[in-house]
Amino acid sequence: MTLKDIEAAQARLTGLTLRTPLVFSHTLSKLSGREIFLKLENLQTTGSFKLRGAMNRLRLLKERSEGDRVVAASAGNHGQGVAFAAASLGLAATIVMPQGASISKQLAAQGYGAQIVLHGRDLSEALEKARELGQQGYIFIHPYDDLEVVAGQGTLGLEIVEDLPEVDAVIIPVGGGGLAAGSALALKERRPALKVIGVQTAQVPSLTASLKENRPVFTPAKPTLADGIRVPVTGQHTFPYLKKYLDDVALVEESAIAQAVLILLERKKVLAEGAGAVPVAAFLGPLRDRDLGRKVVLVISGGNIDIPLLERVLIQALLGQRRLLTLKVVLADSPGSLGRLATLLGQSEANILHLFHDRMARDLPLDMTRVEVHLEIRGPEHGDRVIAALHEGGYLVEEKN
Known about the structure:
Layout: H1 3-13, E1 22-24, H2 26-32, E2 35-40, H3 50-63, E3 69-73, H4 77-89, E4 92-97, H5 103-111, E5 115-118, H6 123-134, E6 139-141, H7 147-153, H8 155-163, E7 169-173, H9 178-190, E8 195-201, H10 206-213, H11 239-245, E9 248-252, H12 254-268, H13 274-284, E10 295-300, H14 307-320, E11 324-332, H15 337-347, E12 351-358, E13 368-376, H16 380-392, E14 396-400
Parallel strand pairs: 2-10, 3-4, 3-6, 4-5, 7-8, 7-10, 8-9
Antiparallel strand pairs: 1-2, 11-13, 11-14, 12-13
């Protein structure tokens, strides 16, 4: 694969995929003292960058008359891309997903006309099943370890350097390596001096392990919010490009990913899935003090997140910022005592979200009761003031973590 392959893919995809916007982030720029831009691939058709690679591969497949049935293995986004591209080109698609794949991604792929097969605990086992179907008359479309797919993903890199020629650094998610390999090649060949840094979840550091061994190695895939990059082994075809073109790989923790999802949604009104938010998590975490130059692009690679999961992620992130506070408060079991507690909390400017009254607690005197109250507050200092006010009011208070 060369830059010419990616440029050819860009021409091939014109009118079939979106040229997604590159937008300035005031919040992240102010936090870092740099000019920070977001490449919003969550706005791509099907909600992620995967359509680029799938459409390029299937267009070439059809031009060469290789067949009319395709099969793909995917945690969700690649499946949606293949399903949409296949429907656009008049091909039949079957998508094999791990049994724990996002429900919303399953439904989306079905909505694009694909047949869904659930198999295996992770993407590796789903790939094995898809390859079996590939021996039964289907054309197998690999989610990342296919250079025609990678060339399609690399068109994202071309768009960045064309829209922001003076870019100094690009931070990009890495799972199997298709997006990072193609984009890094395009970026570095167009602008050799810029830095390209990959990001993985610390739960699945497959590229980090592979770079240490100088070959793709299997890494156990622990549960992660970033399910789109929960890939236990880097691609055989993508690894040489990742090794050559990436300047570094950063690892981020689950709590940082949750915070990044919240920041993007709250400050920029951008809905990102976990894998799409890891560049923000890395930029605010392990890369915060790195010399990345003046203009930095964070690739928001996808936005396909289950709504129930999003709710849990946001609660976790708010708890991490101590903007949600849960207290257990002991008070007299007498008329008006609960009202006085609520009044004191209101005077402290804490917003009561939920309140649970436990009058059956065996560890309390019969004339006392316990209330568990969930509060919305402004942060750690405000929380300390709320607790201090309760203590001054004569209440026994325990913060629940």
